[in-house]
Amino acid sequence: MNYIEIQTVFASEGQPDRQQIQLWIDTALEDYDQDTEIVVRIVDEQESAALNEQYRHKAGPTNILSFPVDLPEAIELDLLGDLVICAPVLAKEALEQDKILSHHWAHIIVHGVLHLLGYDHIDDAEAELMETKEIAVLNKLHIQNPYTEVND
């Protein structure tokens, strides 16, 4: 079972509801055989930029930050980690990239969950593996490949 806690610090038009977020996370974790808990925090550009600077040493807001939990073996918790999503950045990216906003939300949440599972895109081989997994998960959700999607 995948439990999610949603913290909405910033609300905007087009944000997904709890059911949508749960579906996207459940689909991303379909092959993961452990119970999980994920905190999803939806923030504004200011909080995203502050966290991005503090943890990644990069200026400005970003679409998503993933914070995997690294617990000692003796502590047994189902907490997989936290996802911090900047709603204004997602809306801006969807518009600029001519993507359906809900599809972009799904993609970014799936992307974040995969980071929590240890996937990364630091080098080309890792990026290809992660993108392939993202595309497969999104396909199960009937969402086109986000790396080639063009909407009419």
Q: Which blocks of ≥5 consecutive residues have pLDDT under 50?
A: none
From N to C, what is the helix and strand string? Answer: EHEHEEHHH
How is the largest sheet built, in terms of strand order? 1-2-4-3
| Estimated helix fraction | 40-55%
For CATH, the homologous superfamily is named as Metalloproteases ("zincins"), catalytic domain
> How many domain regions?
1
Write a structural description:
The protein is an alpha/beta fold and 152 residues long. 43% of the residues lie in helices and 18% in strands. The protein is built from five helices and four strands. The termini are far apart. The relative contact order is 0.17. The model has no long low-confidence stretch (mean pLDDT 93).
Task: Give the arrangement of secondary structure elements.
Layout: E1 2-8, H1 18-28, E2 36-43, H2 45-56, E3 64-68, E4 79-86, H3 87-96, H4 101-116, H5 124-140
Parallel strand pairs: 1-2, 2-4
Antiparallel strand pairs: 3-4
